[in-house]
Each structure stands twice: as structure tokens, then as C-alpha cells.
Amino acid sequence: ANLALQEGRLAAAQTELNNAQNQLDEKQMELDQVQAMYDAAMKEKQALLDDAEACRRKMNNATALIEGLGGEKLRWTESSKNFRNQITHLVGNVLLATGFLSYSGPFNQEYRNLLLHLWKKEMNNSKIPYSNDLNLTSMLVDNATVSEWNLQGLPNDDLSIQNGIIVTKASRYPLLIDPQGQGKIWIKNKEKNNGLQ
User: What residue stretches are annotated with the Dynein heavy chain coiled coil stalk domain (predicted)?
Assistant: First the structure.
């Protein structure tokens, strides 16, 4: 009888245990769902924080760039103005440069300057715009080329550099009257690698 009584109690306890286990399983399932929702929310929060930080960095970089470029505005405005002036004066400058290349070869520095002065006067009468501060040497050749010519033996005075420009840029073959032999030395050094005869 005692055994039967205890077996009844055991069955009742087992049923209660099964009910409690089922309830625990349900609560664990709910907890897992809530934990998954929490993890997803935390992940989304972290992604938003990362996006906000990236956006803040981009804004700081953009602000720095805008401030840096603001300082360049004056230089760009000045450069734009200079380019407009160059375009306006281009025809006259090119006319002076071609006149120099075509006609001033045989003459000394003084007569070349006189020719330029006369041409500018004629251009003023014809209302052809040109740059008042035009430097034909810097327009027709860069400093690196002039330095290379100097290393090859061309003297560094204005007349010699102008002669070098005429020799290298003019469409006609130049005739060098060269009593000191400086032009000959320069041309031999300049054309050494080209098999000059």
C-alpha cells in the first residue's frame, strides 16, 4: 500500500516536473527570441554609430577641404584673369613671335629691339592687342632648354639665347656668322648624338 502511495506521489511529481520542464522550455524559447532581437538591435545600433562616425569624419574632411580651397580662390581668380588676358593678347603675341623668328635673325640686339618697337607701334595703330610685358624668349623656349643649351656651350646672354631660338625654331635654315666659334661649338655639342656631319 505504501509502495502504491509512493508511486502515485512519484507519478504526480513526474507530471509536475514535466509541466515545469515544458514551461522552462517555452520561457527559454522566448528568452532566445528576445536575446536575438536584442543582439540585432545592438548590431543595428553599432552600425548606426559607425555610420555616424564615418559621416562625421567625412564632414570634417570636407570642411578642411573647403577651407583649404577657399584660400585658393584668390589665386584661381587671378589665374583666370591672366588666362583671359593671354587669350585676348594671343594673336598679337604670336604675330610678334613669328615676326621675330622670320626677320630678326641677321640683326644685332639693338636693331632687333628697334624692330619689335616698330612692330608694336604698327600693331597699336591697327588695334591688334598684345602683351605689353611680352618676353619673346620665355614665350618661345623654356628655362630648362636654355640651361641645356648653356651646358652645350651656348653663351648665356640674351642675344645668344635669341640666336639659339632662331636656329631651333625658324622654318628656314640659319646662316651663322660666327667669328668666335661659339655657335659652332654649341651646334656640335647639341647634335653630337644625332650623327652631325
Answer: 8-119
First to last CA, the chain: 136
pLDDT digits (tens, 9 = 90+) for 59-82: 999 988 888 787 787 888 888 888
* Span 184-195, pLDDT tens digits: 899 999 888 888
Domain count, the chain: 2
Q: Say how far apart CA 90 and CA 84 lie, in whole Å.
A: 10
Please count the residues of the chain. 197
Give the integer Cα–Cα distance in Å for 147 and 151. 6
**Do 156 and 82 fall into the same domain?**
no
Nine-digit cell at 15?
A: 507530471
Residues 65 and 40 in one domain: yes
- Is this prediction's pTM over 0.85? no
